[in-house]
Specification:
Layout lengths: L3 E10 L5 E4 L5 E11 L5 E8 L6 E9 L7 E2 L7 E3 L3 E6 L5 E10 L1
Antiparallel strand pairs: 1-9, 2-8, 3-6, 3-7, 3-9, 4-5, 4-8
């Protein structure tokens, strides 16, 4: 029987270089929660791609606005519930270094 394990997919400060999570072999990741929080005084944006195993990067989030510090965290509802198969990768960037934290959780099924 397959096991379903809760995991923190990403808890990282984003930058202009992509922060990437790759789904382990023999697993399927289902994204349960995606939040972005900005710690600066200026609004920022987050962009991201999903690359299927052996495929090309596809835009998943494009210049999503994240309000300045003090606002509620921004959720990426379009990513919640998505399933990524083994070898697929989720890559995220922000428009400025050290401004936006990404907190993504989900379930790995093996």
């Amino acid at each position: 029987m397959a096991t379903r394990t809760p995991v923190v997919v990403m808890l990282a400060q984003l930058g202009t270089t992509a922060t990437t999570y790759t789904v382990p072999s023999n697993s399927v990741l289902t994204i349960a929660s995606v939040m972005f929080n900005n710690s600066t005084a200026a609004a920022r944006t987050v962009s991201g791609t999903i690359t299927p195993s052996g495929g090309s990067a596809l835009a998943a989030v494009s210049a999503m606005p994240v309000p300045a510090a003090g606002a509620a965290p921004t959720t990426a509802a379009g990513l919640v519930g998505q399933s990524l198969t083994a070898g697929s990768a989720l890559a995220l960037t922000a428009d400025a270094n050290s401004a936006v934290v990404a907190w993504i959780s989900g379930y790995l099924q093996q």
